[in-house]
Amino acid sequence: MRDNVVVNIGPEPLTFGEVVAVARHGAAVRLTDDAVAAMAAARTRVDELAESPTPAYGVSTGFGALATRHIAPELRAQLQRSLVRSHAAGAGPEVETEVTRALMLLRLHTLATGHTGVRPRVAKVLEAMLNAGITPVVHEYGSLGCSGDLAPLSHVALAIMGEGAVRDSGGNPVAAAEALKQAGVEPVELAAKEGLALINGTDGMLGMLVLAMDDLARLFKTADIAAAMSVEALLGTDRVFAADLQALRPHPGQAASAANLRTLLRDSGIMASHRDGTCTRVQDAYSLRCAPQVAGAARDTLAHAASVAMRELASAIDNPVVLADGRVESNGNFHGAPVGYVLDFLAIAVADVASISERRTDRMLDVARNHGLPAFLADDPGVDSGHMIAQYTQAAIVSELKRLAAPASVDSIPSSAMQEDHVSMGWSAARKLRRAIEGLTRVLAVEILTAARAIDLRAPHTPAPATGAVVTALRQSVPGPGPDRFLAPEIESVVRMVADASVVAAAEAVTGPLA
After folding, report:
1. Is 286 a catalytic residue?
2. Is the pTM of this model over 0.70?
3. Which of the residues 57, 286, 341, 392 is marked catalytic?
4. What Gene Ontology molecular function terms does this protein carry (predicted)?
């Protein structure tokens, strides 16, 4: 649990930072008085509908294709229990704790808007679970991304009822009833509409989008660092990154990436070594020269995704919803298309950033293209293989990333006896994006590891202070050039440095914050 950090949950939108703080870093949450008042007011209207003889969807009827049945008052508590139990039908591996905490937080926020009609007590149990570090077991499969992330959210709702499986704050598997008891939390018997309100949202896919944005902001900076190191290693030029050239095509992401490259390559001794008029090359290969165009397009894609996520964080997604004038209306806001599209779009950007990274790595290993470096950067080529197979690993990951870039959101499979006849598959888009981000992390790590070795082999010429700082940071755990050695642990060491932002921190210690 992050010390002294408390995120207030009220009707106002959450920020990206607040979602990351709670989901990834264990920050506490607190329902505001405004949230409690809004929920209580909306609940009054739901209770009125529950007492009315006129059927109201989700309050006094069945669900989905069974919505035509009017449910007698004495069966409505059972209706809610049955809904949650039957919909908690997830299967496959358990998803990550941070993903489950994100969807719990985002569902709590929607409850706090007062548009779902749940009692404040229900929201307070969810609040208490987050603060106690109780994480329901949620599975990989079970959401079609429409009518909400139904199965994932149902496993959370089941825990609120004191049923099902959870993990405690130490990550140990515990029965939900026991975990709640140990935390001093009383489970809830759900009343009219409350089961439906707990499961009818796009919170899982949105939570994964926000977490992905946090990862990609770091990885796109890392991609610029890797590109700068490869430009030096391959005796490339930074003249193509000049601000006036970039301004001829005024994409903001491209401008930011090119500015980073100029900053990272400033005062490079390696570059100065081939600016004496002896270099006969007219221009660099695309993987060097077009680095800001590709990384910049990825940045602009991320910015578009952020605009969608901001609107989603300002949303109250449920069906039916309680409106400010007291009306309770059915709607289609649970459809995950807006989120699914950008999740797929980001997977395309991730695949392409990885692809250009792999091409730079391959160029550094090829004696015909690396401008004086030994074949595969080997100590004794033929006896040693150097980084030959590290590039194979990169290539295998890039190939997988291309498959993961195939959009999930163009697929739809009808469900609920054709009542739910078009779905978004947004949860699936989010799951594959998470796998793609892990792949990009590894691809960039291999490029950085290879470029650092190539930079060392350019001695006595020295790298730029910023790229040199990255090489120095790597050398704390990864030795420099030499005879072949067990390479997998070295790759994993750099993967950790990319993932925990150590690579970015090393560069920014020299440059200041990169764009």
Report:
1. no
2. yes
3. 57
4. histidine ammonia-lyase activity
